[in-house]
Model the fold of this input.
Amino acid sequence: MNVDQLRELLPVTRDFIYMNTGWAGPTPTSVLSRIAETLEKEAALGPASARGVAFAHDIQDEARAAVASLVNADEEDMTLTHSTREGVNVVLYGMDWQPGDELLICDLEHPALTSPANVLAERMGVKVISVSIPPLSQPSETLNLVTSALSKRTKLVALSHIQYTCGLRIPIKEITSAAHEMGIPVLVDGAQSFGQVEVDMKDLGCDFYALSGQKWLMGPVGTGALYVRRERRGMLEPLFSTNTLETGRESTQRRPLARFALVSQSPGISAGFAEAVRLATDTGIRQIERRAMSLSNLLRERVAPIDGCNLLSPTSPESACGLVTVSLDEWPAEELVTTLQDRFGIVGRTVHGPDGVRFSTHFFNTESEVDKVAETMVKLATEGYQPS
Ligand SMILES: Cc1ncc(COP(=O)(O)O)c(C=O)c1O
Done:
């Protein structure tokens, strides 16, 4: 799949410069068709007929196998969820916390992690250690900051693979190996990495990896998965009890992590997830990563010299990715985002800490779109456009 072929499947690219995949990717028409066909077939079979139930199970197995294969995990170690948040909550609330246990996170994290962490602090007396990581850190600096905050009381390290505000990549493999030396498990929030960069469970070595389908993978909203390293299964108790807790049932044997399922999956949405994985696999995750990186490099190069424009994302290849955050002097971030969208058809998003507009450059974006964004930033910085 090349850029033009992929853009054909993304109607939004005809009208907008869509650079907000880090929030939600546009759903390709082939994924939409697969969802519709699956829902129609389910309705025709009867969702709760023997054939309808078998059909739904097959689709879920297909989606689970597809996502496991994309991140080099065994199928048995992967369970479908509806979002990254769900996976993070299954792990955080599934552990046996005691007052004074420490949960190590960092100060750039998304509320998907900070808010359950705060609840654990309030309800269970967990001590949340939030390491301060400068957004432009090199991996060695990040590694040092995290490892020097580990202690005998650390019960879990929980970090995003890529930080959502500034796009900083966290050296998860190195952090995991340092944490494991002290017997501490590692949970990774993969919302911004899955579908954007190569993610390999066997190589990273982490214990839990929560991901979503609606962002860089461009799957439907309401899709995701959680990886649980086999040796760590026993560390978690299900957050909700559902009938899949029963042992010995055929479905539980086939899908051991199904005991952590909170609610049922729609076969239509799961089929869309599987189709989006197929599309990413066809395009090639390495090609996606390479192009996202080369477009973001171009954007960084073009905006960095603009007077009044501040680049808030890392630039080195080890720390950077397809997320580029910038601010403009005199422009509040919200107003900048609204102006870019309403006046210029450029879709980005506001982020805070650091405050700015975040652009996501995906495989389907083009060099001329990057040029247009850079030219627009020049206009806003220098040509008398004012925040209203
Ligand atoms: C780092 C990070 N974690 C979690 C989330 C939430 O993802 P989801 O909506 O799939 O729970 C986001 C969404 O932007 C994110 O950027």
Q: What stands out?
A: The mean pLDDT is 94. The first strand starts at residue 17 and ends at 18.
